C-alpha cells in the first residue's frame, strides 16, 4: 500500500512538474524580443513634478502626444498651466506646406497663444519668454540635417540660454537612428535654412542627444540648462514606426525611412513625389519619358505641396513604394545608387542640378548636401565606392564626437 502510494505520489509530482515546465516555456514564448519603447512624453511620472505650479511654455506640433492625446490637452487635463505654445515648420497643427511661413495664432479650443518659429521669428524673444518659468520641447525628429526641427531646437536652446530659462526635453526615438552617413558639412558657405550644423546628412541622434551635442560643441553663445526625459527600452538599432506623421509629406513609414535618400533630389530636376499622396517614395521627371515605364503627375495639394517640381506634367522614373526597407537598414547607408542612376539617365545633364545662390558656384543641391563635392563627383562620373571613401574621414571624426553625447546604445 505504501509502495503504491509512493508510486502514485511520484507520478502526480512528475506530471505536475511537466505541466509547470510547459507553462513556463509557454510564458517564455510570449515574452517579446525587447520591451515596449516608451517615449519621454509618456513617462509623465518622471516630469509632472517638475511642471506643477509653474508657467509652462511648450514647443510642440501634431507629433507631440501623450498616449493618444495631444500633449497640450493631456497636460492641461493634469492641471499643468500652459501659457504659450511655440510651433516649428509646418505649424503647431502640422498642416502647412514645406517652406511656407506660418503666422502666430490662438488655439481656438484652449485660447492659448501659438507663436510660430518658422518665418520672421525663428527664435523665441525675451518678451515671449518673460511669462514662462520652464520651456518644454516635445517634437518628433527624423534624424536628417535638412529636417528643420533641429534648427528650431538650436534657436530655442539659444533663447533659453540668453534668458536663463531651463529647457525640459521629452525625448523620442529617431526612426533613422541606425544610420550615420553622408558628407559632413564643414564650410560656412553651405549654411542655409536647411542646414546649419556641422554634421553628416544623417546624424543618428535623438533630439535629446542632439541637444547635448549643441551644448557640448559650442553652437550656443551661452549653454542652455537642459534636462532630458529619456526614451525607455530604446537603442539606435531598433525599428520604430511613428504613431503620428511628423510632417505633411512624411505620411508613411516608407517615406520616413526613404527621406534621407530621396530628399537629396530636392535641388535637382527630379521630382521626389511632392504633389502626390506618395511623397518620398517615388522619383521622376518628364525628361525621363521612354526610359522608365512608371509614371505619375504631380499636382498642387494644399497643405502638402502647392507648387511641386514639374507641377501638372507627367513624370517618369522609379517607384520605391515596395522597396525592401530591411535591406536599407542592413546597409546602414543613404542610397546613392538612385542619384547616380537618374543623373546618368537624364538627357540634359547641364540642367540636372538646379541653380542656388546667385553669383556663386553653389547649387540648391549643394545647400542640401552641405558641400559641392558630391555634385562635382557625380558630374565627373566618380564611382559610388570612391564617393563613399571620400566621406570616411569626416564620418569617423563626427562619430567620435557624437559618441560623447549618446544617451542610448
Structure description:
The chain is of the alpha/beta class and 409 residues long. Residues 1-33 have low confidence and may be disordered. It has 2 domains: 44-229, Rossmann fold, CATH 3.40.50.12170; 253-384, Aspartate Aminotransferase, domain 1 (Alpha-Beta Complex), CATH 3.90.1150. The chain is built from 12 helices and 12 strands. Helices cover 32% and strands 12% of the residues. The strands form 3 sheets. Strands 5-6-4-1-7-8-9 form a 7-stranded mixed β-sheet, with helices on both faces. Strands 10-12-11 form a 3-stranded antiparallel β-sheet, with no helix packed on it. A two-stranded antiparallel ribbon has the order 2-3.
Considering the chains and any ligands shown, give keywords for the structure.
disordered N terminus, NamZ_N, DUF1343 domain-containing protein, 12 strands, single chain, alpha/beta, 12 helices, Rossmann fold, 32% helix, 7-stranded mixed sheet, 3-stranded antiparallel sheet, NamZ_C, 409 residues, Aspartate Aminotransferase, domain 1
> Average pLDDT, to the nearest integer?
90
Task: Report the CATH superfamily of the largest domain.
Answer: Uncharacterised protein PF07075, DUF1343
**Poorly predicted regions:** 1-33
CATH fold annotation of the largest domain: Rossmann fold
CATH class descriptor name of the largest domain: Alpha Beta
CATH architectural grouping of the largest domain: 3-Layer(aba) Sandwich
Shape descriptor reads: globular
Kindly name the structural category. alpha/beta
Largest sheet: 7 strands, mixed
- Whole-number count of domains: 2
Amino acid at each position: 500500500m505504501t509502495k503504491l502510494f509512493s508510486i502514485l505520489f511520484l507520478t502526480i509530482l512528475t506530471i505536475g512538474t511537466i505541466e509547470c515546465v510547459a507553462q513556463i516555456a509557454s510564458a517564455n514564448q510570449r515574452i517579446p524580443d525587447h520591451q515596449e519603447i516608451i517615449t519621454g512624453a509618456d513617462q509623465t511620472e518622471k516630469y509632472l513634478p517638475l511642471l506643477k505650479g509653474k508657467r509652462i511654455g511648450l514647443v510642440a506640433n501634431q507629433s507631440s502626444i501623450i498616449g493618444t492625446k495631444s500633449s497640450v490637452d493631456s497636460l492641461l487635463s493634469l492641471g499643468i498651466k500652459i501659457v504659450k505654445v511655440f510651433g516649428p515648420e509646418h505649424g503647431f497643427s502640422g498642416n502647412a506646406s514645406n517652406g511656407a511661413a506660418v503666422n502666430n495664432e490662438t488655439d481656438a479650443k484652449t485660447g492659448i497663444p501659438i507663436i510660430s518659429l518658422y518665418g520672421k521669428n525663428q527664435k523665441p524673444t525675451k518678451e515671449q519668454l518673460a511669462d514662462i518659468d520652464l520651456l518644454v520641447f516635445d517634437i518628433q525628429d527624423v534624424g536628417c540635417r535638412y529636417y528643420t526641427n533641429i534648427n528650431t531646437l538650436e534657436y530655442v536652446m539659444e533663447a533659453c540660454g540668453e534668458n536663463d530659462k531651463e529647457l525640459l526635453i521629452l525625448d523620442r526615438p529617431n526612426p533613422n537612428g541606425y544610420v550615420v552617413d553622408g558628407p559632413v558639412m564643414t564650410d560656412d558657405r553651405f549654411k542655409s535654412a536647411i542646414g546649419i550644423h556641422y554634421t553628416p546628412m544623417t546624424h543618428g541622434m535623438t533630439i535629446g542627444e542632439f541637444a547635448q551635442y549643441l551644448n557640448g560643441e559650442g553652437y550656443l553663445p551661452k549653454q542652455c540648462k537642459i534636462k532630458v526625459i529619456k526614451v525607455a527600452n530604446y537603442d539606435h538599432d531598433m525599428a520604430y514606426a511613428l504613431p503620428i506623421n511628423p510632417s505633411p509629406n512624411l505620411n508613411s513609414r516608407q517615406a520616413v525611412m526613404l527621406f534621407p535618400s530621396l530628399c537629396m533630389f530636392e535641388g535637382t530636376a527630379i521630382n521626389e513625389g511632392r504633389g502626390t499622396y506618395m511623397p518620398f517614395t517615388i522619383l521622376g521627371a518628364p525628361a525621363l519619358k521612354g526610359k522608365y515605364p512608371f509614371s505619375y503627375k504631380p499636382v498642387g495639394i494644399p497643405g502638402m505641396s502647392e507648387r511641386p517640381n514639374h507641377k501638372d506634367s507627367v513624370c517618369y522614373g522609379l517607384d520605391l513604394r515596395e522597396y525592401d526597407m530591411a535591406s536599407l537598414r542592413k546597409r546602414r547607408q543613404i542610397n546613392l545608387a538612385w542619384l547616380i542612376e537618374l543623373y546618368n539617365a537624364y538627357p540634359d545633364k547641364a540642367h540636372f542640378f538646379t541653380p542656388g545662390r546667385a553669383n556663386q558656384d553653389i547649387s540648391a543641391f549643394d545647400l542640401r548636401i552641405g558641400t559641392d563635392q558630391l555634385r562635382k563627383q557625380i558630374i565627373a562620373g566618380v564611382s559610388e565606392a570612391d564617393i563613399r571613401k571620400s566621406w570616411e574621414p569626416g564620418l569617423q571624426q563626427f562619430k567620435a564626437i557624437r559618441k560623447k553625447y549618446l544617451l542610448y546604445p
